[in-house]
Amino acid sequence: MDQTAHIAILPSPGISHLIPFAELAKRLALHHNFHVTCIIPTTTDDRSDATKALLDSLPAAVDSIYLPPVNFDDLPKDAKPSAKLSLTITRSLPSLHHVLNSLLSTDNRLVAFLADPFGFEALEVAKGLNISPYVFVPLNAMALSVFFHLPKLDETVSVRFMRHLPDPIKLPGCVPLHGKDLFDTIQDRESENYKWFLNISKRLSLAEGIIVNSFLDLESAALKALQQTEEASGSSSKPPIYAVGPIVQTGLSTPKDGSECLSWLGKQPRCSVLYVSFGSGGTLSSDQLTELAFGLEMSGQRFLWVVRRPNNESAYLSEGQSQLEPRDFLPNGFLERNRDKGMVVPSWAPQTQVLSHGSTGGFLSHCGWSSTLEGVANGVPLIAWPLYAEQKVNAVMLVEGLNVALRPKVEENGVVPREEIAKVVKVLMDKGSEEGKRVRDNMKELKDAAAKALGKDGSSTRALSDLAFTLKNKATN
Ligand code: UDP
After folding, report:
1. What transmembrane ranges does the database entry give (predicted)?
2. Which residue of 267, 326, 464, 469 has the lowest C-beta tally within 10 Å?
3. What is the set of domains in the chain, with CATH numbers?
4. 254, 304, 345, 371: which to mutate for ligand 1, most atoms within 8 A of CB?
5. Is 389 left (phi over 0), alpha (psi -120 to 50) or beta?
């Protein structure tokens, strides 16, 4: 039965979605002998260097096909990234159909198609071609619970804005979540985004299985609750859930040369540097950027900061900022004053190498799920600074559920002031702080649990084997 089975995967647009998909593909190919075709939706003719380098680094059993770029000329200039994300998939459906059809005509072992939740329309294309649809949620079980819970929540709430919900939401097995901490895409129940999201939530059960980037020891109660509901409701309504994480980037993260910041890290004392990064597209307002700069300086701690031009909108899915000159928007004299203690990198750093470096002792993060798991896999405690998407859900879980992060207080005006930043940074990094020690110790334990989950008999290894077994069975039937 070990004739190579073939699966096709479709990450939604953006390097940060591609990274966990590529890593999952790698594992299925190397550990379970699958042939994987990675189908890449594109928005312009220019394929980013990072995407290309990532795809080129994959093993021979993983090949890739770019879909023809979709056209956004009809969209307003200020169209939101989430609108572009969903439209990229919608407008790629005819070419996806064509690609899947031609793969089928040459390989009768194409057994499954894996998309992320935002590609739910693509699942229907696969189903129509008799290819088993699966969903890979590159997020955690708590975020997946939000998806599953939303249709019910929608029927019960009467407020327009989720942030006005009077009581916290109690998702089974999860820490209570205030309405304001729900995904930003579902804050306004009258928005197009909300309708899109609700639609996704209702159609998740179309999948024959859901793979989630989490592991049992990280979210045992939430995962058990998801499975139990599934058993309680019978096989028809909720697909089996496979917790296979942490699936994090291995190897070099980008083709860009990160050697300068790595050699700077090499000269710093052990666990002394706070790495500051807001993911592939997070940006701060101009005021917030200034406060962060002064806050880092006031903390007296060493830092490695990936800076982006200030902007009130995220730079997600927008062009890179490679020509960036940080001096143009950092406070006057900041770079000179902090030359000995800090390093500033424009727009992108080799994150996985930074986090696994012995000099890195803390991570101020926007709580994107991949960044978070990279922190966990390396045992680096966090300062939770969520910006958009599901990042606030992650922050609540990390701070209130797992106790592996500190969350600075945001003022009424939406800005975290420099004094608060300096205080939180000192607590996390200063070896004398009890609170910091608790968070650091908890993160070390979580790191060990993550390694165990991925070990020979670990829960995630077993879940991936179960999935592989099920898929291979389809190839032989
Ligand atoms: N990343 C990186 N260098 C950077 C910023 C991000 O390598 O300077 C990688 C990071 O390691 C992670 C991904 O980009 O794998 C970001 O994904 P995440 O889910 O954390 O956040 P998003 O970009 O989706 O907001």
Report:
1. none
2. 267
3. 6-139+196-248+455-476 (3.40.50.2000), 258-451 (3.40.50.2000)
4. 371
5. left
